[in-house]
Amino acid sequence: MIAEFLNIDETRVVQALREAGDRLDGTEGEVALDFSSVRRIDPSALLALEAFAGIADKKAVKVVLRGVNIDVYKVLKLMKLTPRFAFVN
Amino acid sequence: MPRRTQGVGAVVPAPATHAHKVMEVTMIASEAVQERVQIPLAVETLSAERIAYLEGLVSQARTAAAVFSQFTQEDVDRIVKAMVLAGLEQAQYLARLAVEETKLGVMEDKVLKNMVATEFVYNYVKDKRTVGVIREFPERNLVEMAEPIGVIFSLTPITNPTSTVLFKCIMAIKTRNAVIFSPHPKAWHCCSEAVRIMYETAVKHGAPEGVLACLDSPTLPDNAYLMKHKDVGLIDATGGPGMVKAAYSSGKPALGVGAGNTPVYLEKTADVSTAVVDIIVSKTFDNGTICASEQTVVIDDEIYDVVLKKFAELGAHICNEKETRLLERTVIDPQTGYMQPLAVGQKATDIARFAGLSVKPNTKLLIAPIHGVGREHPLSVEKLFPVLAVYRAKSVTEALRVCVDVNHAGGIGHTAVVFSRNEEVIRKFGEVINAGRIIVNSPGSVGALGAVYNDLVPTFSFGCGTGGGNSTTDNVNVFHYLNIKRLARRTQTHMWFRVPNQIYFNMNAVENLRQFPSLSTIIVTSPLLEQIGHVDIVRRHICPKTRVHVQVIPDAEPEVTIITQGVEAFNFYKADQIIALGGGSVIDAAKIMKLKYESPEADLEYLAAPFLDLRKRVVQYPTEKINRARLIAISTTSGTGSEATPFAVLTDKARGRKVTLADYSLTPDVAIVDPQFVMSMPKGLTADTGIDCLTHALEAGVSNYASPYTDSNAMQAIRLVFKYLPIAYEHPRDEEARCMMHNAACIAALAFSNASVGVNHALAHAFGARFGVAHGRANALMLPHVMAYNAAVPTKFMPSPYTQGYVAHKKYAAVADLLGLGGHTVDEKVKNLIQATEQLLDQLGFPKSIAELGITREEFERAVPDLASIAFEDPSGRSNPRMPMIKELEELFWKAYEGRGVAKVDAVLEHATV
Question: What DSSP string describes B382-450?
Fold first, then answer.
C-alpha cells in the first residue's frame, strides 16, 4: 500500500526530499516519489536522495521512485543507489 | 570541522596533522630523478584522518562524475571553452608561480606552455565529439559512442606543472570525468592554483561540484592509497618511470608516460642552419625540461665541424675534453648514472658555473662531444637541462647505430628527431628507432607537444609504448579519457553470383563451338566417349583450321599423374583452348590441367587449404599466368554440374588422399549443355546423377549462403527434376526430358556454385568413400532424413550473417508450393515435400536404406563414429542452415541405415515451429 505519493519538482529536489523525509514519521508501508519532471539530478540532490533512503530504511519504509528517466537512473546506478529504491514507470 | 580543500572548491573532512606526520618524502629537485625511486604501494603509514580525507575526495569526485554523465556535448563544450579562456587569462600568473616554486625553467616559456595547453588543446578538442555518438563509420555500419571513465587519479610532474594540469583539466571536463590531482610536492602550490582556476570556472559554467580536486600536501602513501582505490577508474601518471611503474603495478587501468632520451640524427643532406636553430629552440625551451627535448645529436662527419661552428655562432658553448669531464661529473650522478637534480631546468650559464666552466654570459647551451653511449659516457643519458651531447659519425650506419643506442639508453618509445632531406634516411631512421614520436626536420620538444610544428595531437603526456612500460605510444588526448563503445550494426555482407561467361543449352548447342577461334585445341575426354563418337561430334564443330589434339584420360577422379600428362600435352601443343568433354571427373581434370598450365607454380595441396569464407581465405589462387587457354566444358551427364562450377576434386594416390579445389578461377569460361551427349545414359546413371542434381538444388536452397539469385535457380532446378527425372529415367530417349534434366543439372550448379551445399553432401561424401557407393546414390540415402533434420528446430543454430532468422523449413514449404504438393501449414508442406522426395526415390529404384545395400549393422556401427567425424569436417556442412553436431550426424547415419519413411520424419517435424 502506498501511504504517500509525492511529486518531485526538478527546481527544488533537495527541498522536496527533505520535506518528504520529515513526513516519513507518520508513514507506513511505502512512499512513492514521482521523478517524472526531473530531467537531471545534481550532487546535492543525490546526497538528499541518499539521506532520504537512509531515513526510510530506519523507519522500514519502502521508497518507490516513479518516472525516473534513464539518465537519472544511470546516475543512481553509478552511485550504487539503485538497490535502495524500487522503480516503477 | 570541515574545511575546503586547498586549491579547489570541494568540501572534505579535515585531516588532523597529516601534512607532516606521514612518511618523509625525500625532496629532490626533479621528479624525473625522484621517480626512479620505487614508489611504495603500501598505505599503512596513513592515519585514519588522512584516509577519511582521501575518501572524502574520492566520494565527491565519484558523485560529480556520476552527475556529469547526464551532461550533453553542448554543456561540456560550453564549460571547456570558459576554462580555456580562464587558463589563457592566467597563463602568465601560473607560469610565474611555477618558476617561483619549482625554481625550474623559464617563465616566458612556461607562459607559452600554458597557452599551448589551453589554446592549442582547445583547438584540437573543440570540434571533437566526446559525448554520445563520437564517430560514425556508415560504410562499416559502426558507430562509436563515449562512456566516461568516472574518477581519474592524475599525477603531474614538476617540470611542466601548470601546463600539465591545465591540459588534464580540459581533457577531463571535455570527457565528463572527475579528476583528483596529485602534483609533485615541489610544484603543489602552482598546480593547486591551476586546478582552482579551472575548477571554479568549470563550476561557474555548470560543471558538477567536486569534479576537479587537488590533494592537499600529496604524499607517496596518498598516491598509493588512491591508486588502489576501488572508485578510481584510471590512473594518469605523467612523470618518471618509478611513478609509471607504481601506477601500472596498482592493478588499475593506467596511462603511464615517462622519461625519454631523445636521439637526434643530423644527416649530411639536412638544412644545417635550420636544424641548428631548431635544436637550440628545443633544447633551451624552458631550460630543457620537456622530456622530448634533444639529448644527443649524432652528426655526419661531413658536416660535423660546420654544425658545431654554427652552434657556437648562435650562442652555444662547445666543451673541450676537459670541460666535458667537468660537466659530466657535475650534472650526472656517478652512482646512478642519471642526471643530477640540481641541474634540472637550470640555465646553461648556471650549470657552467656549477661545473667550473668559463663561458660567455649569453651562453644558451653547453655542447659536449661524446664518443659512445652508456655508463662510460655519462652524458649520453637524459639531461633535462640545456646540455647537449654530440657525436661525430663516420657513416649513416654508424649514425643510426648510435641513435639506436641512445634510444635504448632510457628513451625507448619516447621521442626521436631526424634532420635530413634524404627520404630513404628518414624512413630508415623511423624503422630502426622505437619512439612514439619521430620528429622530422623540426624541434623535438615543441614538435612532440604537437600542433605547433606538425599535425601531432597536442599533449602534455607522451605515451612511450611497451618499451617505456606504457600502454600507448600516442600523444595522450581526450580519447584516452574515454571508454569508447562500438555500436556494431548487422552488416549486409556483400554476396556474389559468379557463373561461366557463356552458357549454351538445348539440343545441338555444341554447334556454338564454331564461334571460338583457336589455333590449338585440346579435347580432354574419356575412352568411352571417344569410342561412341562424341569426340567426333565435337571435332566437327570446332572452328575450321584449328589444330586439334585429343587427350584421353580415365573416366575416374583425376590423379596427379593424369594432370601432369595433360599439362605436358597442353605445353607441347601450345594449347589456347581446352574442351572438356565428359562427366564431372573429366571436367574436373581439365580444370586442374588448365590451372597448372597457366600457372605452373601453383601448388595444388597448398591451394586446397581449408577456409571458412571464400572471400577471407588465407590462400589466394594465382593471378599471374604464363599461358592462357579458354576452357569449354561439355557435360555428358546430367547431375554434377561441373561444367558450371568452381570446384574440382583431385586424387593423390601416392599420398592416399583427395584434394578439393574451390575457386572461381576454376569455373569454365564456356559451358555447353547439349542433351545429345546424354541421350544414351543408362538408367542407373540417370537416376544417380539426377538425384545428385536435386540434392544440389535443395541444399543450395536452404543454404546459409542462399540469395535471391541462387534461390531462383535452385527452385527452377527442383521443379525440372520432379517433372522430368522420372520421364528421363523411364523413357531415356525422350528428348524433352533429357534436355530439361540436362538444363536442371546446370541450373542447380549455378545455385550451388554460389550458395554451396550442406550436410547431405557431407554425409554422402563420407559414406560413399567408406563403402564405395556412388555419390548420387549416397545422396539419395540421406536426403529425406536431412530435409527433416533441417526442417526441425536446430539443436544449435549456425552463425550466419547472410540469413535472417531460421528459414529452412519455410523454404522447403515454398518448394512444396512450387511443386503443388498441397498442405495448409508449413509443417504439412514440409512433410509433403519429404514424402514426394521419397516417392521419387522409390520411383527411381533407389534402395530405401543403407541396410539394403548389404552392409551389416555391426560393420556400420563400427564405421559410424569415424563417418560422423569425417562428415563434420567436410566443408559442405559449413553452409548448412543448421549447425551439425557430431552426435546428430551419427543419428542421421543411423536413420539412413534404418531406411526412409514418413512416420519417422513426423517425429522430428513436431518441433518445426520456428
Answer: --SSSEEEEEEESSHHHHHHHHHHHHHTT-TEEEEEEE-S-HHHHHHHHHH--EEEEEESS-HHHHHH-
Q: Does B64 touch chain A (CB under 8 A)?
A: yes
d(CA B349, CA B361): 7
Q: What are phi and psi of B707, to 5 degrees?
A: -140, 170
pLDDT of residue B5: 40
Domain that holds residue A73: 2-88
Mutate to test the interface with B, among A10, A50, A72, A78 (most CBs of B within 10 A): A78
CA atoms of B817 and B512, how far apart (whole Å): 37
- Better pLDDT: B241 or B721: B721
Number of structural domains (chain A) is: 1
Alpha helices in B285-422 (DSSP H): 301-313, 321-331, 348-355, 396-408
| Range 54-73 of A in CB contact (< 8 A) with B | 71-72
Q: Nearest 5°: CA angle at B670, between B666 and B674? A: 120
Q: How is the beta sheet containing B547-552 ordered, strand by strand?
A: B502-505, B670-673, B630-635, B577-582, B520-525, B547-552
For residue A6, give the CATH number of its domain: 3.30.750.24
**Minimum distance, in Å, between the CA of residue B65 and any CA atom of chain A:** 9
Rounded CA-CA distance B376/B328 in Å is 11
Alpha helices in B795-876 (DSSP H): 808-819, 826-843, 857-873
d(CA A51, CA B20): 35
Phi, psi of B882 (to 5 degrees): -110, 130
Rounded to two decimals, the ipTM of the complex is: 0.85
The reply to whether A42 touches chain B by the CB within 8 Å rule is yes
Cell 542447380 -> residue:
B748
The pLDDT tens digits of the residues spanning B497-514 come to 999 999 999 999 999 999
Quote the pTM value.
0.81
Domains and CATH numbers, chain B: 3-28+50-257 (3.40.605.10), 262-457 (3.40.309.10), 500-677 (3.40.50.1970), 744-914 (1.20.1090.10)
Pair type for strands B133-137 and B142-148:
antiparallel
Name the residue with cell 538408367. B683
| Res. B43: pLDDT tops 70 | no
Task: List alpha helices for B72-147, DSSP H.
Answer: 73-89, 91-102, 107-115, 121-125
- Single out the residue of B252, B156, B124 nearest to residue B461, CA to CA: B156
At B904, the pLDDT band (50, 70, 90 cuts) reads: low
Structure-block grid coordinates of residue B547: 589444330
pLDDT band for B249, please (50, 70, 90 cuts).
confident
